[in-house]
Amino acid sequence: MARTPDEFWQRQRIRVLTGHRVAGLDISNRRVRVSEPDGRERDEAYDLLMVATGSRPIVPSWENSRAAGVFSVKTLPDGPAIVSWLKDHPVREAVVIGGSYIGLEVTENLLARGVAVSLIEQAPELMGTLDADMGALVTRKTRALGVMVYTGESVQGLEAHDGVVSAVVTDRRTLPADVVILGMGVEPESTLWAAAGLPLGVRRAIPVNDRMETSVPGIWAAGDVTETRHLVARRTQYLPLATIANKGGRVAGLNIGGQEAHFPGAVGTAITRIGPWEIARTGLTERESTAAGIPSEAVTITANTKLGYFQDTGPITVKLVVEKTSHRLLGGQIVGTAGSGKRIDVLATALHMEARVETLLDLDLAYAPPFSDVWDPVQVAARQILHRL
Amino acid sequence: MARTPDEFWQRQRIRVLTGHRVAGLDISNRRVRVSEPDGRERDEAYDLLMVATGSRPIVPSWENSRAAGVFSVKTLPDGPAIVSWLKDHPVREAVVIGGSYIGLEVTENLLARGVAVSLIEQAPELMGTLDADMGALVTRKTRALGVMVYTGESVQGLEAHDGVVSAVVTDRRTLPADVVILGMGVEPESTLWAAAGLPLGVRRAIPVNDRMETSVPGIWAAGDVTETRHLVARRTQYLPLATIANKGGRVAGLNIGGQEAHFPGAVGTAITRIGPWEIARTGLTERESTAAGIPSEAVTITANTKLGYFQDTGPITVKLVVEKTSHRLLGGQIVGTAGSGKRIDVLATALHMEARVETLLDLDLAYAPPFSDVWDPVQVAARQILHRL
After folding, report:
1. CB-based contact B197:B9 (threshold 8 Å)
2. Which of A165, A372, B13, B272 has the fewest Cβ atoms within 10 angstroms?
3. Taking the CB of residue A222, how many other CB atoms lie within 10 A of it?
């Protein structure tokens, strides 16, 4: 924990009530209905209210989806709970459902513990937030790590014996499972908001303006429960990411405290890792550009992370997506070995500035043989795409 | 070598003449005087001329500065020459003169070969291209690697026995030396240009416009022999770096070939490494800002390269320099462990876009525990500096 309730009180005179649940919201009278740890309910008045209820993992209503041995990975106790299960049970086979960020990270850690992992993904390739060609690269690399990857399969339900999960049933096969991890994403915890009859946005997230105010005077919101403006798509999206939650929380706090702060939005940057492979994305994929009605051109190149005479050099694949007429950068995707992933930040920064792809070529990026080639891979990609535009 | 003369001919019908020296330039008659390998001279006519004579290492006119065992590190044969010397002689003590990029890189490699290194730097701290506080960090880290660092000392001359270097004499002491490496920077190889009576710029480099044309019609130049426009300082500088040479060369080639290309300039990004320490800079330092008459504010913070529960996390120190009134980012400096150095690219990209420091806070940079903290260190620095502005 970053800070305990006691530290909040000692350092900032903030009263933190844990084990309390807010059961209802009465905006006319500016009151919340609080359910205390012993179950008693009482009303608490507010002048200003901040809603930061976050998100909850998606758990489909499959048969046995709440059996023992089935875990989501969202809150702090989820980690120790899984570790305890692995210690207390003879776990040889794990099934991970969902081949995106959480799914890959859990897979990596199960592999490190010597557990055989089957990874099920409904989409044709792992990492559905990448384009299919980059996703296919992740699928191949993940298989090469010894993971049984089943793409294009959907889970029908779970099997259990005596309340303990024993298998996962897909539309194609039954996979025995000593433990099942769900990595199917999250949804906003906006039950309170919906119950009060207040308007919800994309995927039932709470809409806020760039000061993090909701549509209700005196009520603010930030984090995984809110919508976020996507600066490249130029519309709101649901982007439940820690970086965005932190920025929104800071801006809400400054405004509540009487300052003037704004959170313009995000460009959809994310990063993860499986084994030696770093995977990152920012902006719009080719598929997302098409869906948003933006005509795009894309190029994918493979280069080295550093000069070839270093033993620890490795491949880095960069995909760039550019708007056809304006040459505006729309997004980028990277899959590569150590030192690849954080290069996405150059593209994320360029997206914030609405840079054209020509500008990428001019960037004075750091070069020395242990760090990069003279032309950084993102610039090699920019050079390639200019030939096509 | 990237390509041999034969490959140039086979692939592109480019005739490469090695061992030929251009001894004179006659712009009135569009001819160069060529000295052939056998010493004979002849004239060669040109329609268009590209000058890419590069730079040469600075070798002061000290006594014995050309003795055997004294090396510069500039051309391809310099590396093998040093390696041969180390093999053929009982080298126990090396003296490296100059504590910047080349000096540190050579020191790292000598240490790896078990040679005791004394490193002499005239300035008060190593890495004179950083501000003194960041340079002091590099000095401390380098000392901790076992290097004898002598800062604020200037070399008076070298001693030699039978034509072989034996010691380096500074204004404070005499250091025995079995080998001496000069890392004192480079200067433009503009002898030809000067001899033709043509105008020279900063540090005797050749001035060019953003199409890489010189002041002489039909003559182009690029690389270490030319000046470069510094986009933050908004004036020309001498920046002999491979990245800039490559960009300028590409633009010159495109223009000579009939296309229209421009090289707007650079922001002075550079990176190096010694032991586990990555060192990078971009834009203007605090000292350079003052020298350029730009009132600035600066802040230095230390954070972790990734979340604290990773064993391979380490410190990263970031210094930001910002223009006082406009809040325009002026530059950044980074010293830290693995994964630190290339973060300078976010700042370099922001400099190209003339970003204000407020924008750094909004950047949607990639976060996952193995890669970064939720607030990237460059954003932690941006937050700090905003408190001061």
Report:
1. no
2. B13
3. 25
